Amino acid sequence: MPGAASHGGRSAGRCEGSRQTAFGGMPAEDPLVPRLRQISRSCCLVKHLGAIFLLFPLQIFEWWYFQKYGTSFIEQVSVSHLRPLIGGVENSPPVPGFSANNGENETNRQSLSECKVWRNPLNLFRGAEYSRYTWVTGKEPLTYYDMNLSAQDHQTFFTCDTDSLRPSDTVMQKAWRERNPQARIKAAYQALELDNDCATAYVLLAEEEATTIIHAEKYFKQALKAGETVYRKSQHCHPQNSQHEAQLRRDTNVLVYVKRRLAMCARKLGRIKEAVKMMRDLMKEFPLLSMLNIHENLLEALLELQAYADVQAVLAKYDDISLPKSAAICYTAALLKARAVSDRFSPEAASRRGLSTAEINAVEAIHRAVEFNPHVPKYLLEMKSLILPPEHILKRGDSEAVAYAFFHLQHWKRIEGALNLLHCTWEGTFRMIPYPLEKGHLFYPYPSCTETADRELLPTFHDVSVYPQKELPFFIHFTAGLCSFSAMLAVLTHQFPELMVIFAKAVSIVSSPGLA
């Protein structure tokens, strides 16, 4: 019937309309729905990428800061600034006469003393050696920091308060402060015009103008003649007042410096026995100047003569617990003990029969030397390339290792099997040292300041050896993991939005079951 059909049609229309409006009144086939879903996914992707782009520069900066300064920037800021704000530091009144950190403070003081920069006892000549390297390679072997320390040394050794009494000394006082080498050389000639017996002027010309060792030796001989004359005058007319005491001290420093450099010239020119005699006489004449480490020059010359009994006698005198150690002392002692067994040493035979008493002594001496300066073996074994040694060194640092290996590598090569014994045993040292390096095995803990000082002492083209190898801080690992996780979530949400929604709901249900 038409009425019934009309009624049925209206009923069907109402049912279909109710199906169409069951999801909020929007038709299922509406083209806006996929568009909105795409926009939602894009917004989610943008949100995750924004977090990544914010964290990525932070990670790059944290890595750069750690490589340059050896510490985490985020950790440093947290400890220094955020921890006090949240009450992480308790301000307790100090107890008079007692400190809970006495041991730590003592260790810190020892570490600071070990990080003191020393003048290299075997430093080269600027004009005859360092400058020749620059002419050939175009590279500067000395850093500004190193040369500035030398300028301070020269002012300390060669100037005093009475320089104003002698015009030539006044000129030289200004010369040592000049940065330009040509200006220093010009000032030295001006001082010689005023006084032909100005010893410090000859010293400056020998160090910086002379282009050969023979030329430098000629200047130093003139300096010795002038220096001895002035030194005798200072000795004979030495009234008891502070100014003349300073003048005598200065004249003594000049004389000792000149005699030592003359001995080094003789060593470089092949007159080794003459050099040894000059060094022995100098140490006998001025026994109180042991801080100049003239015995290290003597050790190297005696090793060149292969006078091993004399080397042992020098070690017996200076390898003392009360004296500051050096790589030259420790490694020379190890070399002498290795010499007794190295020609017959075989790691395969030693593993079968065990080490003899002499071999044990040699291995222990090597371990002792490596613990004092762990950078030296790589240079002796030619695992790292050598450069010219700096004018100043840091004991136990890479700069000291470069200086030692530069002069002593030939002595290790001369003894058959010595480098083989070193190669087989030196890495065993690190199994004996506690980790982290809160305490040493035979010496104080390895100082943490060596890398910074060595980077200032050694040229930029040299790859500075670092010990111990630094581990990346937690925050670099954390930010790297967070960036990677955020990137993964962004990609998964963009590619599989429905699965990620289901996963998010499941995680929310598991994390808060009471709200499900």
Overall description:
This protein is mainly alpha-helical. Helices cover 66% and strands 1% of the residues. The protein has 23 helices and two strands. Strands 1-2 form a two-stranded antiparallel ribbon. The protein starts with a helix and ends in a 5-residue tail after the last helix. Residues 1-14 have a biased composition (Low complexity).
Uncertain runs are: 1-27, 86-113, 435-440
* Discrete helix count: 23
Strand order of the largest sheet: 1-2
Oligomer: single chain
Spell out the helices and strands N to C.
HHHHEHHHHHHHHHHHHHHEHHHHH
Give the terminus-to-terminus CA distance: 53 Å
Overall residue-averaged pLDDT value: 78
Strand percentage, roughly? under 5%
* Classification by helices and strands: mainly alpha
Global morphology? globular
The major β-sheet equals: 2 strands, antiparallel
User: Radius of gyration, Cα only, in angstroms?
Assistant: 37 Å
Helical fraction equals 55-70%
- How many E strands? 2
Membrane topology: Multi-pass membrane protein
Family: Belongs to the ST7 family.
Keywords: Membrane, Transmembrane, Transmembrane helix
Protein name: Suppressor of tumorigenicity 7 protein-like
